[in-house]
Amino acid sequence: MAAKVGDIEFDRRQIIGWGPNGTVVLRGRLNGAQQPVAVKRYLTKQLKWNASEFELYRKEDHHNILRLYDVTSDQSGFT
């Protein structure tokens, strides 16, 4: 089941991991690029707890830290 939110395309069946509080990590692509990216889906109600995590990842540029490219929401209550 392919989905597109903003510039991110992903398949909800391609789960590559799980996180705390119901987060799911999926395989995806940014802007149709061949390089795969990880798509971490949060319940929207968790956003205020994770805002600092998003901001930290957005500012970091280090080879040992995942790079955050985008944060977006969809109609199903996930970000």
TrEMBL record:
Q: Which residues form the signal peptide?
A: none
What superkingdom does the record give? Eukaryota
Q: What is this protein called?
A: Serine threonine-protein kinase
Q: Which UniProt keywords apply?
A: Kinase, Transferase
Among InterPro entries, the record links this protein to: IRE1/2-like, Kinase-like_dom_sf
Instruction: Show the GO cellular component annotation of the record.
Output: IRE1-TRAF2-ASK1 complex
Query: One MF term in GO for this entry?
Result: protein serine/threonine kinase activity
Q: Which organism is it from?
A: Daphnia magna
Return one Gene Ontology term, BP aspect.
intrinsic apoptotic signaling pathway in response to endoplasmic reticulum stress
